[in-house]
Amino acid sequence: MNLPHYTRRHWLQKSGAGLGGLGLASLLADEGLLVTDDPLAPKKGHFGGKAKSVIWLFINGGPSQVDTWDYKPELEKMDGKELEGFDKNTGFFANAVGPLMKSPFEFTPRGECGKMVSSIFPKLGEHVDKMAFIHSGHTESNNHSPALFMMNSGQPRMGLPCVGSWVTYGLGSESRDLPAFVVMSDPLDRGLPKGHAANWGAGFLPSVYQGTWLKPKGDPIDNLNRPKHMSDAQQLRQLALLKKLNGEHIKERPGDAELEARIKSFELAYRMQNAAPEAFDIDREPEHVKKLYGVGEKRCDHFARQCLTARRMVERGVRFVQIYSGGMENQRSWDGHNDIKGNHSQFAGETDTPIAGLLTDLEQRGLLNDTLVIWGGEFGRLPLTQKSKKPGRDHNPHCFTTWMAGGGVKGGVSYGESDEIGHHAAVDKAHVNDIHATILHQLGFNHEKLTYNYNGRRFRLTDVGGKVIKPILA
Asked: Is residue 326 part of a domain?
């Protein structure tokens, strides 16, 4: 057999070209221009973002702004008075509308910024100098399901990509062995949020970008462990065969995003069998860290474990983590139609220590600088009484409070104002689209340019609205 003869000059020329190709690939990757068949490969945004991951603490059910972060001394003065001209269809129970009701909780100034904070947040109040409060949020529905879809996907209907899906579509993931987008929910006996998995669905984006729901009890992901009778070598041979068969299948269906996503899911599932058990095992954490979050405390243990898992996720490169506090509705969530005092005391008690621990832990590890933490629900609550055995509050789409911390957000500031009784957003109104635009901006995206072509139209998270809330940015 005649082998090709290479002079030293030929060898240097060819090896130099090869090294140049490697260098070009590296440069293209740095610029986010390298084409790869991995849809979750790390990508860069439109500009240098301050944040690289998100932890969204979804306060499911609609927390009352006037009982948490939006102090209204005028509401105290008007307690018991009728609100003239009130549209009884604003809330959900038009026949149960009562007079104005002051907060049953005491507010005190906290932090160097002097933020007035409800007594239900004794530990979170210690962190107000890290938080930027948006007091003028408003949305488009007074019903849980469409309001949840609005807050998660920018539209009050199901079937559209949620924020986490848009973020992973734009940035990919820094983890090769864990899902890019993880969702944790309340204990199952209280149910999933209204709309269930549609809240973390990918809509018309490829399904590889949808959220991975972790079960709150038992193994967080089904089939995480391989069958006992199967060895690693056997499983690898099985996966190799699947890859070969799928490769032949996709040749006949080029560009089939769903098929490509299914193929990638097999590969990720195998890698997760090694990485996920370690990542989800919070018992590996030192006792002082678990105590910081409230692990082991009966009232808050479940949420403490989820917050600690969230930190372990972003530490390992997971891009987007969403945790739901509260289940289906009413007393199973922050939906305080009956007994607002008891309802919010309970759920604040479940979350106060874990979220405070999360902020402390992220800061101590240097992760808060590039992790954007968000707290908020799907809408607010009315400053009026909802008549019941113990007074509650009905839904209010016209005003809610959200706060952000870390990820390049300015701490100890408040943006916008509600009116004197916390009924309507009044100054510097912030639509849900504005909140989404701000999240994307901190991750390095112009929200008007992060688009996806579907059915002949270029869609985006913020639809045809949205502006970045720049006063809260550092």
From this structure: yes
